[in-house]
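Format notes (please read before filing issues)

Several people have asked whether sequences and structure tokens are stored in separate files. They are not. Every record keeps both together, in the order shown below: the sequence lines, then the token lines. Line labels are part of the format and must not be stripped during preprocessing.
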Amino acid sequence: MLVSSIPISKKRKYEKEGVWLALNYSQSLRCCASRDPSLPSGEFNYTGGSFHFANKPFLFRCSMPQRFFSTVACCVLISSLLNISPQAFAQNLKRLPPEGIALDQTVVDRLQQRLDEAAGRLRKMNLSPTAQERTIDVEVLFRAVRLSLEQRLFYKESDIKLADRLLDEADRRLHALQGGADSLAMLETAPSGKGNEKSGVSLIAGGFVSRIDQSVQPFGLVLPKNFDPQRSEGYRLDVWLHGRGDTQTELHFLAGRLTSPGQYRPEETVVLHPFGRHCNAFKFAGETDVYEAIEHVCRMLPIDRTTIAMRGFSMGGAGTWHLAVHDPTSWFAVNPGAGFVDTLVYQGWNDQPPFPLDEVQRKLLNWYDVLPWVTNLNNTRLIAYSGEVDKQRAAAERVMTAAKEHDVPTRHVIGKDMGHKIDDASATLIDSQLAQWAKIDRSKPAEKIDFTTYTTRYADADWLRVTGLREHWRAGRVTAAIEAGNVLVLQTKDITHLELDFAKYAWPAQGSSVRLSVDGQTLDIRDDSDAPGLQCRLSLTTTTTADGADLWKQETAKESRLRKRPGLQGPIDDAFCSPFVFVVPTGTSTSSVVNDWIQHEIKYAQDRWRRLMRGEVRQVRDTDVTPTIVDENHLICFGDFQSNAYLKSIASDLPIGWDEQAISIGDARFDARHQVPVLCYPNPKNADRYVVVNSGMTFREFSNTSNSRQIAMLPDWAVIDCSATDKSIFAGEVVAKGFFNESWMLSSSAGSR
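Then the structure lines:
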């Protein structure tokens, strides 16, 4: 066998029928190469002492630990020696969620009949407005069973019982609604399991309507003992982000939330369990869902919005890390357990990544990598957890090291002898610390803020908002302080626009004046808002001082020029984090190669959204786009400037040219017979929304193996060669790509290959 000269601890290799295998960090095997070219490459999953290749049994058994310690470097070495292309590693990757078992047709028919009858009963009910709001909590149960049937997501025979359990609960809620019940109590269930019956907590499995796609998304609640829905003092809210479970779909999540209170249930605290769109580490639409679930619960229950903690473990720990650094002032404390904090190191891709890691790709990593944002932990309170022997402890240690370098206070609890698990002693210690922090008064504005951002997608830090950067994906930083005598002192770096908003604090008191200093420049500011407290908008001018420093001014008129700002800064994947509608062509592209690619990508993007993001695809034809649709949604347009009527109507206002022969981007030309542009850009008919051309989410099947691979793979624009056959990492060969500048214009180097 070929042996790598790279020193790797606990390196192992296995050979079967000419297939070279190397263990990696994700408890799976990667087929690196083969002596027999007819054998495909793919993912080998180890379950119960046997391997499954491409989701099919592979007749090879061996005795080995479930947790593997090896490296992707073995794969890289072999692939380089055998001249295997990077995308060869991405063939036959796992599906998310995986395909389930085949059910007996009589079982399918029975469940479908129950579902149809219950849904029919709901439609016929004449309910009060309050009771109508509760129907979402019935529909979420219907949808879980329906998706499991439609997408074949039953993995064990016992899952049938879960479906019946959810339909039983739906029947119970329908009966309560029919009887006139509309209170929160109709949703509550008691936990089951050893030790839980006497806990005194109540459970709720409910749903909310996503503003992204109007789908009903699930969540769970744990209400504390003696919970009072009428209490005047708001309850503390702990948001608990769950770990990864490829087969833990809506059916399994809701069934669990009806019976299990989970490990953490602090006194006098409501615990929220967001579903987060299943398996994406609470990124992209999963991230939006966390905020929407919080908002939904705050409307349902008496919650103290100043006392919300963000917590999670494993995949949920990764989600907690990124929400902690991106939005630190929304949480009185953050408690990540395990969880990755970046892509390259966690995946072992530093030496040779599986796709070209150029400057554009490295900039995109700044979206969800945690370490570049580590100084933002100054704005919250961190208590992290790691098992002493958990391999994911290394990720937390990297954050601790980086925090220490920047004098950021942290606390890291280590569970003695623990692997990937939280021990009771550590859980008690963490709960005690959070309880102490929860008592700190947060009714006044933060006296000090130290905020870094790489994108105006993450713009807010308490009363401060960054609304413009000198260059997106390069760090912009602002420090702010409230000093004695109502003096505000701000220092900025690579920031062009700011907003100050003290409305929720009503600071300063009515009649009081404020002195403002920005980068040493004193500004006379005027508050024209009717809201309590100070509000003002600031921007850098084109005027400079004698020593070359930029001057700041207060903005009073509504800004009209096009520029990157919160909610409209790219890249392409940002459009799928808020409401969008697919706009499909009624025409046909002149090039059959391009037309086939477009039709494939429409179906692919729809299926990807439905399965991976557990959503509903709202779609219209290009001739049916209404002003309301344009006003309220990003438009995801497929086709070219001839086949899609909507694209044709805005073609002259887009920054690219595209006819039957050529695509023009800057000074570069591309062959339109087999290449297509993909991009996001402010919609010329509504500059507050994107128009996206020929792209769904940019992370494809290659990312299914690990949540750390679920990253933005394309920037603001790219040109794709659609004649390529391998579409597992990209939708084709990427022949050019780049970012628009801060004014949404092409840079001088745009179109370079």
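For reference, the curators noted about this record: The two ends are 40 Å apart (CA to CA). The mean pLDDT is 88.
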